[in-house]
Amino acid sequence: MYIRKIEKKDRSGQKVYTYYRLVHTYKVGKKVRQQNILNLGKLENIEKEDFKILANRIEEILTGTVSMFSVTSDEIEQIAQKFAKQIVDKGVFPIKKKKRVVSQELQQEYQMVDMDSMEQLESKSIGGEWLIKQALDLFKIGELLKAIGMNEKESVMAQQLLTAKILHPSSELETERWLQESSGALELYPVDDDRPTTRYRLYKAATHMYKHKDEIEKHIYTKTYDIFSGRSKIIIYDLTNMYFEGQMRLSNKAAFGRSKEKRYDCRLVGFALAIDSMGFLRYNKVYPGNISEPKTFKQMIDDVEKQFDTRVETPMVVMDAGISTEENLELLKQRKYDYVCVSRIIPKEYSEPTKAIIQLKDNRGHNIAVEKVLVKDKEDAFLKVKSEQKQIKEDSINQKLTQGFVERMTHLNEGLSIPRRTKKITAVHETVGRIKDQYSRIAKLYKITYQEDTKKGVVTDIQWEKQKEREKPKGEYFLRYSKKELQEKEIWDIYNLTREVEACFRILKTDLNIRPIHHQKDAYIEPHIWLGIVGYQIVNYIRIKLKKQDINYSWSTVVEKMRSQQISLVSVNAKESEKIYTKLVTRPTKDQKRIYDALGFKNRPFIRKTKVVPQM
Q1: Counting Cβ atoms within 10 Å, is residue 29 exposed (0-12), middle (13-18) or buried (19+)?
Q2: Which whole number is the average pLDDT over 180-196?
Q3: In whole angstroms, how far apart are CA 276 and each of 336, 362, 495, 498?
Q4: pTM score of the predicted model
Q5: What is the Cα–Cα distance from 87 to 22, expressed in whole angstroms?
């Protein structure tokens, strides 16, 4: 074998394109024949003097011969293995496939082989990919993609992309590398196509799916409802934001705002979610980064309302204090929706009609005391919550902030009598303003007074005194609800469903890694986030099924445990100038089998696949 240089010109004849082709020479009688084996591309990373070494190494891998002199570098060896695999996969040599039945009755077949020629050509992960493949089949994603107009190749590309977003969330460029080099996903989605999986085909698949966003979301949610039927008609709503890398000049939605991750140096995009009681998404929307949380509420209600027949069922809305404005609560009352939320107001006047304090546990097992109260001039009901753990936490935070506030004020006050320190009236007031802004939670509890020498224009003394009447009870807050017949424990359990939204955001941002966002255009930003949403629905289904079997792994732990199940390609020389290639899937470990069994999935796609390649 040798490498031939090919030059082609464009239509104008001005630009010359160069690439290389692997050619095999052989004799037929006394005549020499040449066979084009494979286009190798530009070979930019290989020096021309190493072309012969590369060609020889590819021939050695294909024929199973061993050179007496090992002179290949690691880079050449890796490239040679890659090209040899492509030649085997494309069947350039005459291939005779041996049919086998993968079952309990698999009969043993004996071959005479050269054990010294046995070599493992590659090994890739298959466990997580096989898990996701079966989940996608359960949701009939392949049929859905064809229904929205995708052909077989596009459907396969979309499912590969979804698999990558769930198991190895990254850019399309990194996804391309992962699918080709590290993952066995391509083995699970065979397609009669010589073109490789590229980032451009992945972009196209993502864009096509996003155009049919509503159909796909409705299909997936309907499937989850069929699988987990009978769940309560509860909507938990919240809004978060995610930060971008870069200046984002090409995006209309990237804007500076109040970052929930304290990334005030980055532009943000807002992201609203409404989920049901089991954590499945009913609604999602991307907003500009500076959007006001309460203003997003009405649109969510309008969109989600279409999913309900309000004549038969009335949903209950659960939300946090950031969204539960008086305007939004009035909207829910007008539409006769029930709700449970954190009260934005701290009632000053309320009565305790039953004087019955109920002791409950929070989600971490800490004691809380709850009590129904009646608030003056309010139609809806309130539940007073007293948490010892919250009080301890608030005391600790206040103590730390108080220490910082007092230290800054003391330093400023002592400097009034020290030369070259801040003492002018205007400068002192500005400094105190900055201190109050930095320690706003504590500063509002203090009354600050100044002694000034107006003739000299300086401050001579500063006094700060804590006003106890300004302090609020620690560890206390109020839940506000509309359905007055609810019992204390029911109200508390419904409110705690907001943890599901927090868990959803955590999985999306951390396990599915949808932030930070590196895309620069809105046309790519929204599909990027939305693919994470589709992936989350699949992940949530798997986690719920595992929890039912007392398997409480995080998603990152599930991915890590499944990664060790591998698919390997092994070659060995047989008699009569034949080479046997065998693909093997490893047996699942104890933990992997437990996960498969909990989901009702098969524990491997196949045991082995074998084909025999006659050597030329």
Answers
A1: exposed
A2: 81
A3: 19, 21, 13, 10
A4: 0.73
A5: 10
